[in-house]
Amino acid sequence: MDLLVTxxxxxxxxxxxxxxxxxxxxKPHLEKRKADFHKISVQNYDDLLSLNMDxxxxxxxxxQPDVKLSVSNPRFDFETNVVGTFNILEYMxxxxxxxxxxxxxxxxxxxxxDVFPTPExxxxxxxxxxxxAKAASEMYCSSYTSLYxxxxxxxxxxxxxxPRSTHGVIYDFYHKLQKNxxxxxxxxxxxxxxxxxxxxxxxxxxxxxxxxxxxxFDVFNVSSEEITTVxxxxxxLTNILGxxxxxxxxxxxxRGWKGDVVYSSVAISKLQSxxxxxxxxxxxxxxxxxxxxxxx
Amino acid sequence: MDLLVTxxxxxxxxxxxxxxxxxxxxKPHLEKRKADFHKISVQNYDDLLSLNMDxxxxxxxxxQPDVKLSVSNPRFDFETNVVGTFNILEYMxxxxxxxxxxxxxxxxxxxxxDVFPTPExxxxxxxxxxxxAKAASEMYCSSYTSLYxxxxxxxxxxxxxxPRSTHGVIYDFYHKLQKNxxxxxxxxxxxxxxxxxxxxxxxxxxxxxxxxxxxxFDVFNVSSEEITTVxxxxxxLTNILGxxxxxxxxxxxxRGWKGDVVYSSVAISKLQSxxxxxxxxxxxxxxxxxxxxxxx
Lengths: 296, 296
Description:
2 copies of one chain form a homodimer. Chain A is of the alpha/beta class and 296 residues long. Helix content of chain A is 39%, strand content 17%. Chain A has a domain of 167 residues: NAD(P)-binding Rossmann-like Domain (Rossmann fold, 3-Layer(aba) Sandwich). Chain A has a 4-stranded parallel β-sheet, sandwiched between helices. In chain A, strands 1-2 form a two-stranded parallel sheet. Chain A has a two-stranded parallel sheet with strand order 6-9. In chain A, strand 1, helix 2 and strand 2 form a beta-alpha-beta unit. In chain A, helix 5 runs parallel beside helix 6, helix 7 crosses helix 9 and helix 9 crosses helix 11. Chain A starts with a helix and ends with a helix. The mean pLDDT of chain A is 95. Chains A and B meet through helix 5 and helix 6 of A and helix 5 and helix 6 of B.
């Protein structure tokens, strides 16, 4: 958002505020008339149609983000993440918007692959409804691109963390440690290995995807190459916080929750070939994130 | 249906009759109380929930079947083919039905692959909304299987033809020739090469899939290995009908319609390893189909 305005774009922002988005970062742009904001859900197509400017590109990040919730309440997740994306694509067809960058997921669409690092061409076999929704959405990105001449790029993103983020494992650990600095509960056995992505590297991926958008549907894994267990995240965080005496307790089981992918390591050479890289190490990233979290 | 009753099963049949299903074949089973019928759409979850028997397995073939319509009216196709399948899966979760055979599509989910014959592991990249809907449905079959312990097999079916079928290219050609036996309009340039599947071989595939249903989500291509162009279908049909003097006219372009996959050839060794095969040659199949069509 900040980058788009810096680049000289006027931005229309949509959010139904269901994930309690903090609008304070948007305010300066609204005041300078560089953006407008609409409390609209992508679930509601008629509301979407009320927006009628000559948009160049849609950055579609509207989603129910919680894998756990997608398992306990599949229909809500489906309505937001599949119907929502379908509505965006229908909007593009109706309003003749040609370009879309779609925020997909690198850690959930492949399910439990047997090739590491997993390349984009690997067949999708999600084990959570969240992953199924992102994969299903990509299927429609594929057909709409082919049928109606759209240019669509799907960025399969790792777990994004960093300033302004108010969910995710690091955020959760930080607040657990605020409450009790001697003990930290870790979901699962702590050996889950995931793909993380610092916010600045994420924004840069969107920027590069937009700059390189071309005819057809394309897909990119976006992740750090650092292989990190959840326990190592905890180590890193407690170290940065200067807490040397934290006892870990584990809820046990190999998964943190139902539908949790326990090992993810993906190939990122495709996006690297466009000049992107994950420049921020996990240590630096967590350090910057903690600095931000410490302000509150 | 006939086979299921022969095998001793009691069958509940659901159809919203939107595709003008001919119920005459069902009638004997209803009269013998081997089956019950409900005019219900899979789009309507509340209606589905009204059915509450201890079902062993769902054979999910309810769909909007027309690729062309999926392109001109994406939302109707989405509601029937994606929401419909999602509702079936939700029904299974709610009513504790463990087994599902899903009718997917071999000719549309891969889009335009560059590997022939295309194996099941090939990544899905549909070019029609019909294909996207089938692929999206498979993504949910995958997650639901993993999350809720279902046993699901997806049969990616070729173009099914044979007695009782009232749509498809052979059906269309037959009726065009009934109206005018000297000229036949062929959509596209006639070189489109597709996967066909005779009805008896299709039923046998469902039977074998059911007999071999096991834990997890599995996918099988189901198609004849005969490589056949649309023009060759026309040749075969005119030959069987004894029409030697038919002039073909072509609407032109490589696709018969928007979203039409022009070349499909899939690997069927996976289902063959379970003892299935396409026993009916295209010539025999068309001959039997014509015998049936000639009755009316």
